[in-house]
């Protein structure tokens, strides 16, 4: 078998920072990690090497949005755009839309997986089973209950990992349990549920919370709400958008402290703006404007982000004063664990998928490797 050896002067393997290591890769996996020098390597990784970043909530990139063009070409464009910023694997995300758009996106993912396109772990359906008062930019006329047709779509076996964001007050716990029993990963979001409604959904099998703090019922003196449940169920994971705009830094710090970093995932919730010149987007008849890194509709509603995964890591490291290793893990090993893939993703170790990035002192990505192949 053909083997490629990479030299890393500074390697974070997911647990420890190591010096002067040779990473031997064959058949898409890491075969061996040993001490060595540049002279012994086929490829020299100039900078710091870390596990590839995994984005479990990304709506678009490279000037395209999955909802607008649910095709394999859109998926590839999104992957290529975000790869420049450290994303090695992703779950392209469909915002609340018609069944036709959802099914077309699923078909595109099925095609991408069938032809072994790199970087796609599955698909995230954010809606349409949400709370209308907490819908954000999700079109109100498409918010609806869970039909048998949509249940069957979520349970398809040819589209990789499936995450479904739903509001527990709109989907009975029996249906949540049935989804989870079928292998669907249920995440709670865009919800005005009470603590008990939310906890019932967790007891039924929901394991995630989508963009923590945003579009969910707040805690008060007598009602913990969705946020209170998220912060007090240690077995669940929570995605969070660390762009200093969606969530106040103190709230982000509190969540990480209460849940621990291992249960917190950095996500982008990125629209089409990553690696694209556009400054506005029309979605569902509304214009979304990008101004000073913030995406809003004319009435001031937050509308996704222009964030990328490496910037999320930097914001967590510098803005939240967390170690770089912890910040990297929140973008790699945490999402891998959420997806049930921590035995193959999220670390640079023997037996794991050969997914890793290299970045310089300015946090610019200089290499992005997925299953032993370059994404740049």
UniProtKB/TrEMBL annotation:
<dbReference type="GO" id="GO:0008448">
    <property type="term" value="F:N-acetylglucosamine-6-phosphate deacetylase activity"/>
</dbReference>
<feature type="binding site">
    <location>
        <position position="190"/>
    </location>
    <ligand>
        <name>Zn(2+)</name>
    </ligand>
</feature>
<feature type="binding site">
    <location>
        <begin position="302"/>
        <end position="304"/>
    </location>
    <ligand>
        <name>substrate</name>
    </ligand>
</feature>
<feature type="binding site">
    <location>
        <position position="211"/>
    </location>
    <ligand>
        <name>Zn(2+)</name>
    </ligand>
</feature>
<dbReference type="InterPro" id="IPR011059">
    <property type="entry name" value="Metal-dep_hydrolase_composite"/>
</dbReference>
<feature type="binding site">
    <location>
        <position position="126"/>
    </location>
    <ligand>
        <name>Zn(2+)</name>
    </ligand>
</feature>
<dbReference type="GO" id="GO:0046872">
    <property type="term" value="F:metal ion binding"/>
</dbReference>
<dbReference type="InterPro" id="IPR006680">
    <property type="entry name" value="Amidohydro-rel"/>
</dbReference>
<keyword id="KW-0378">Hydrolase</keyword>
<dbReference type="InterPro" id="IPR032466">
    <property type="entry name" value="Metal_Hydrolase"/>
</dbReference>
<feature type="binding site">
    <location>
        <position position="222"/>
    </location>
    <ligand>
        <name>substrate</name>
    </ligand>
</feature>
<keyword id="KW-0479">Metal-binding</keyword>
<dbReference type="Pfam" id="PF01979">
    <property type="entry name" value="Amidohydro_1"/>
</dbReference>
<feature type="domain" description="Amidohydrolase-related">
    <location>
        <begin position="49"/>
        <end position="372"/>
    </location>
</feature>
<feature type="binding site">
    <location>
        <position position="246"/>
    </location>
    <ligand>
        <name>substrate</name>
    </ligand>
</feature>
<feature type="binding site">
    <location>
        <begin position="214"/>
        <end position="215"/>
    </location>
    <ligand>
        <name>substrate</name>
    </ligand>
</feature>
<feature type="active site" description="Proton donor/acceptor">
    <location>
        <position position="269"/>
    </location>
</feature>
<keyword id="KW-0119">Carbohydrate metabolism</keyword>
<comment type="similarity">
    <text>Belongs to the metallo-dependent hydrolases superfamily. NagA family.</text>
</comment>
<dbReference type="GO" id="GO:0006046">
    <property type="term" value="P:N-acetylglucosamine catabolic process"/>
</dbReference>
<protein>
    <recommendedName>
        <fullName>N-acetylgalactosamine-6-phosphate deacetylase</fullName>
        <ecNumber>3.5.1.25</ecNumber>
    </recommendedName>
</protein>
<dbReference type="InterPro" id="IPR003764">
    <property type="entry name" value="GlcNAc_6-P_deAcase"/>
</dbReference>
<feature type="binding site">
    <location>
        <position position="137"/>
    </location>
    <ligand>
        <name>substrate</name>
    </ligand>
</feature>
């Amino acid at each position: 078998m053909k083997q490629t050896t990479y030299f890393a002067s500074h390697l974070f393997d997911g647990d420890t920072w190591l010096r002067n290591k040779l990473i031997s890769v064959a058949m898409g996996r890491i075969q061996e990690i040993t001490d060595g020098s540049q002279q012994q390597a086929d490829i020299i990784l100039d900078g710091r090497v870390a596990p590839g970043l995994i984005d479990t909530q990304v709506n678009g990139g490279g000037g395209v949005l999955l909802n607008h063009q649910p095709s394999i070409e859109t998926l590839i464009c999104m992957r290529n755009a975000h790869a420049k910023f450290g994303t090695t694997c992703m779950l392209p995300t469909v915002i609340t839309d018609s069944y036709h758009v959802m099914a077309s996106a699923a078909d595109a993912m099925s095609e991408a997986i069938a032809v072994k396109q790199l970087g796609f772990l599955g698909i995230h359906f954010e809606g349409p089973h949400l709370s209308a008062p907490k819908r954000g930019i999700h079109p109100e006329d498409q918010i609806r209950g869970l039909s048998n047709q949509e249940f069957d779509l979520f349970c398809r076996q040819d589209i990789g990992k499936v995450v479904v964001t739903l509001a527990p007050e709109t989907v009975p716990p029996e249906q949540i349990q049935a989804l989870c029993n079928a292998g669907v990963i249920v995440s709670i979001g865009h919800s005005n549920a009470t603590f008990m409604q939310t906890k019932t959904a967790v007891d039924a099998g929901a394991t995630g919370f989508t963009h923590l703090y945003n579009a969910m019922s707040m805690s008060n003196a007598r009602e913990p709400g969705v946020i209170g449940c998220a912060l007090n169920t240690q077995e669940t994971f929570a995605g969070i958008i660390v762009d200093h705009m969606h969530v106040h830094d103190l709230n982000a710090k509190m969540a990480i402290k209460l849940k621990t970093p291992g249960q917190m995932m950095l996500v982008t919730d990125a629209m089409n703006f990553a690696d694209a010149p556009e400054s506005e987007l029309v979605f569902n008849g509304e214009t979304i404007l990008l101004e000073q890194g913030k995406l809003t509709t004319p009435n001031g509603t937050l509308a996704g982000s222009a964030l990328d995964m490496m910037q999320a890591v930097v914001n967590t490291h510098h803005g939240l004063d967390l170690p770089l290793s912890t910040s990297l893990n929140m973008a790699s090993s945490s999402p891998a664990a959420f997806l049930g893939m921590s035995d193959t993703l999220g670390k640079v170790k023997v037996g794991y998928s050969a997914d890793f990035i290299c970045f310089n002192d300015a946090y610019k990505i200089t290499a992005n490797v997925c299953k032993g192949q370059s994404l740049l």
